[in-house]
Every structure is written in C-alpha cells, then in structure tokens.
Amino acid sequence: MYGSFDIRGTGPSSLRVNLRQIADVAPGLGEPSRVVVYDDFLGDALDARWSGSSGADGSNPAILAAQPGGVVRLASGGGATNMAANLSALTHGLNFQADKGGMMMRARLQIDNKANSYIFVGFTDVLATTTTELPFELDGSDALTSTASDAAGFLYDTTGSDAWFAAGVAGDTDAGPSQLAVSPVNATWVDLEVRITASGVARFYIDGEEHEQLQSAVSTGTPLTPVVVASDDNTATRNLDLDWLVAIGER
Fold first, then answer.
1. 27: left (phi over 0), alpha (psi -120 to 50) or beta
2. Which residue ranges form the domains of the chain, and what is each CATH number?
3. Whether the model pTM is above 0.90
4. Is there a smaller number of Cβ atoms within 10 Å at the N or the C end of the chain?
5. Buried-state track 21-46, b at ≥16 Cβ within 10 A, e below 16
C-alpha cells in the first residue's frame, strides 16, 4: 500500500489520504482489539487463508510471476456469454462483522478492458469456495438484483450504465444501487474503499474521495468476508489485477 503514497500532498494520493491510510492500518498491527488483513500479493502463490474459486469457464485467482510490487490476477472466462459461468472470485474469511465497529475494506485494482465486464469489490456473506456467485447484478435499466443475502461494495456491470455503483443488501433487503459519477478506465489503477459503521451505514470512497453513503447496507450481526469478483458476458477473457487489499474491523 505504501507504493500509492505521494508525499507532495496533492491529488487523490495526497498526504492527507496517506495519513489516513497509516492511521487505519498501524493501530491494528499488534493491537489485539482489531482484526486486520493486509496482503500485497508477493511471492509465487496465494496465502492459504485466501478462498479463491471460479465459474465453469473462469480461472481461479492466481499471483502473477515476476510482477514488481506483487499482483494477483482474476481472469474471467472466454467460453461462455454468462457472467456466472465466467467469473473469478477471491474471498478471505467470514471474520468481519459490522456491529463490532470500525469495519472497512480497501483495494487497488485495474481491469484490462471494461467492455462486457463485471466487477464487485467489498464485503459479502459467503466464501467463494463454498458458494461461487455474483453478489449483485444490474439490468439494462440499472435495477439491482442481489444474489447475496448480506453484502456491500462497489459494483460495475456493463449490462447497466457505464459507471461504478454503490450497492448493499441487508437480510435480502436491497440498499441502492446508487450510481457514482466515476467509471472504470481501462488498464488504469483505482483505489476503492468501503467503510461500514456499527449501525450498518456504508460509505464509499474512490481514490480517497467520498462519493456516497447507503443506509442499512448490511445486517450488522452477520459475519462477512472481503471479496473481489471479476467476470464478463462475452467470449473474450477479461483480466482484473489486484495490487493490494486491506480489511480492518474491531473484535
């Protein structure tokens, strides 16, 4: 994560944002009151604590060899026109719960080509190795369908409008979607962050700037896992590269 720091204090990776990053992570390191997951995806294989899976035509998440700084790739399938069949999903563990307080998840990622693609980044209620699913989907009118019972995060689904959406679901009751004034850019890194309060309010940040709040975004007593999902509904593979991921919560 330190690779995104900019000591000049300008732009989205400003000194103000850097200090917030440090304030988020530092207290959890060696602090028994907080739960912290941080991975820079170094080495040649994913840590065994990650739960990676894929649809019938997708590929399991895998660390790319010889990538400075470390990258894990989620490669969607190219053999179907079905997003569920093409997906690649990465989860960790059901170790985060909103009512404990201080829950957040943040990741830096990029997609090679957003055409016909799907991305979800946030929290969900199932492990990828147990249930392989798209937590949310949009239709052509930007109406939301939730497969997850409890989840919240950033949704990009080219079936709908060309923009990030904030989406949540609390006990099968949807929150949002809310269209954000930002779209993914091909082969360009973006910093996505979702923070969820003890009362279930989700706040959404893109490159350090807050864009939206959703009330009742998740059930506050449900254990959740960080999740990243990539897919497509075309016959051309899409590659989502994840540079780092951090998730924090109180015990």
1. alpha
2. 34-250 (2.60.120.200)
3. no
4. C
5. beebbeebeeeeebbbbebbbeeeeb
